[in-house]
Structure formats: structure tokens, C-alpha cells
Amino acid sequence: MGAYKINDWQNLKTEDINELQHALISWFEKNHRQMPWRETINPYYTWISEVMLQQTRVDTVIPYFLRFIDKFPTVKQLAKADEEEVLRLWAGLGYYSRAKNIHRGAKLICEVYDGKIPENQKELLKIPGIGSYTAGAILSIAYEKPAAAVDGNVMRVFSRLFLVYKDISEGSTKKEMEKLGEAVVSATNPSAFNQGLMELGALICTPNSPKCSSCPLSFICRARRAGVQESLPVKKKKEAVKSVNMELGLLQKGDKVLLTKRPPEGLLANLWALPAVEGTADGNAGRSIVLELQESYGIETSDPEPVVEKSHVFTHMKWNMQLFRLKLLSMSDIDYPEIQWVSLKEMDQYAIPTAFLKVIKEIK
Ligand code: SF4
């Protein structure tokens, strides 16, 4: 079988689409996993859960989702919250710009749409952090509209089902896949159809070793027929992750530890963390963090003593973190709002990212 041309979908027979919809929806209705956001049809729940689920596993998301919804049960309550509080509830989920966008989005929904999440794609796409996938998920799951919701998982399923040899990391492929999604989505049950595709991608049509013998769509799957399911989707190799050596400071005053608020721009912006700075490769370990504390906050320290090493991988970067215990010599009289002395017990009241929690766990 040759490479399938994606635009051939426009010529797909209605009975084939009907068969696909029927098989997928029946499978989803019998086999889907229970998730708290699936218990009611609430566009706010769909929005929050879909954003949390980006790059994150369902099991990880569930407790975060429940805490978030408990604290901010409606868009209006979320809009009124402090960003600090939103970030605190997000701490550990990573990709913090998602939380900031949700918060900004809630404010916009209150200002422009009186707290009601819009019911059309054009308006949804104006909301910070809502892209075509999240818009499609909200429209189809919460509003029962036949919109496509195409993310990386769905593109993998489509690549295999329809034998698409196109690089799914390209924006043009995503656009074509969205057209494909619109062509095949069920008009009568778009929610079960789209969730079925997502669930199939998570449970059956997995990135490695897809479980084709248990797949409800194997009878129409072109990749399976051609025996090439393991080589799809086509995806450009990611660039190598850059490694950065970070020096962290452990500074204590009684039972309290110094936390600093990270700058408003860049990686982990506005989150609370142990003082940290990129180290130099001159073999003078601990010197960079001593200088950073002195220059940024007027804190004089000495004798950096290495305590623990940990690493953390972000999307495009790996931090090799080395924590130094520092002796506090003196502090400036200036009251810096971006530093706080916090006991280990109080730390859960702060939005601290996972990279630093790994190190703090060692201190504890
Ligand atoms: S038959 Fe296999 S490759 Fe095709 S959709 Fe199902 S799990 Fe994926």
C-alpha cells in the first residue's frame, strides 16, 4: 500500500466514516476510565482538566484537578484569586505558564463573557492558553458540538489509521489533521468520539507496541494492514537537551530557610525556590551562589559546603543542581519583597516547582 494522501479523506465514503464512528464510540462507552471531570458536563471542568492533562499523566492530574476545583469551583472564583494561590495549587505539575494562562483566561472570561465560557471556536481562541485542541475539547465534550480535538495522541492514531507519512511536529500537518478530525467527528456524539480517540491513544494505540489485537479500529487501520504501525507517526527527532549546572544555596536562620521568588520572566517565573544561579565551569564550585546572594539581595555568606546533587529535566533543558550549605554572615537592611524566611513546615503554602522540591525533600 502506498503512502496515503491525507486530502483523500475528502473522498471518503460516508459508510466508512459511519463504521469508524460506531466502532470507536461503542468501544469508548464500554471501556473508558472513570475520571472526575467526566462525571458532569461542565465546560470549566473540561477546560481545566484538558490543560492539566497536557504533557501530564491522568493519575498525576486527578489530585491536582480535585484540589483546584475545590478551591476555585467556578471561573468567577478563579478570576478573583491571587496568581500566587493559583501557582501554589499548580506547584509540581510543571509548565507553569499553563496556570498563569488559565488565570488570565478566567479574568478575560469574566470581563468579556460574564463568566461563561464561549461556545464557539473563534471566541475560545481569544482566551489565553486555549489553542485549537483545547477549544475543540471544550466544544465537543462540554457543548456537544462536532469540533475536532487533535493533539499529539490523536495525530498518532490518525497517522496509523490513515497511513499518513507526514511529520506530526510540523504545523501544516497539524492543520491537515484537524481537517481530517472535522471530516470524521460524529455529529451526534462528538464528545464520545473525541474522547474515544484520546482514550484509544492512551490505552491501545500507544507510542510503542500498540495493542492492535485489542483495537476496535483494527478492521479499518491501514498501518496495521501494511504492518507499519510501529514506524508511524513520522516525527522529527528532538534537539538534544542542553545541560546546565546550577548552584543552589541553603541558608538557614533558626528553623527557617531562605526562599527567593524567581524573576517575572523566563523559566519558572514568579515561583518560590531556593536561591539558585547558573554555576561557572572554573572549578570554583559554590562561588556563583555566594556572589548571587551578595549582588541580588545584599546577603553576605561564606564557606559553601556541598550538601546534595539532584537533576531535573525540563522540555529543552536539564539542570544538574548542586546544593551548597552557606554560612550567613550579614544581611542588608533593605526589605526585599522577593525573599522570605520559611520553615520547612510552611513550605507547602508556597508555589515551589518540582525541580526544587526534589532538593528540599533531601533537606527534610
Ligand atoms: S490497529 Fe493498531 S495501529 Fe491501528 S489504530 Fe489500532 S492500535 Fe493503532
Automatic annotation (TrEMBL):
Q: Where are the transmembrane segments?
A: none
GO BP terms: namely: base-excision repair; mismatch repair
Q: What is its EC number?
A: 3.2.2.31
As to how many cofactors bind and how, the note says: Binds 1 [4Fe-4S] cluster.
**Which GO terms fall under molecular function for this chain's record?**
4 iron, 4 sulfur cluster binding; 8-oxo-7,8-dihydroguanine DNA N-glycosylase activity; adenine/guanine mispair binding; metal ion binding; oxidized purine DNA binding; purine-specific mismatch base pair DNA N-glycosylase activity
- What positions does the domain HhH-GPD occupy? 52-203
Which key words tag this protein in UniProt? 4Fe-4S, DNA damage, DNA repair, Glycosidase, Hydrolase, Iron, Iron-sulfur, Metal-binding
> Where are the annotated coiled coils located?
none
Q: What does this protein do?
A: Adenine glycosylase active on G-A mispairs. MutY also corrects error-prone DNA synthesis past GO lesions which are due to the oxidatively damaged form of guanine: 7,8-dihydro-8-oxoguanine (8-oxo-dGTP).
PANTHER family the UniProt entry points to: ADENINE DNA GLYCOSYLASE
Protein name, as recorded = Adenine DNA glycosylase
Q: Which organism is it from?
A: Geosporobacter subterraneus DSM 17957
Q: What is the lineage of its organism?
A: Bacteria, Bacillati, Bacillota, Clostridia, Peptostreptococcales
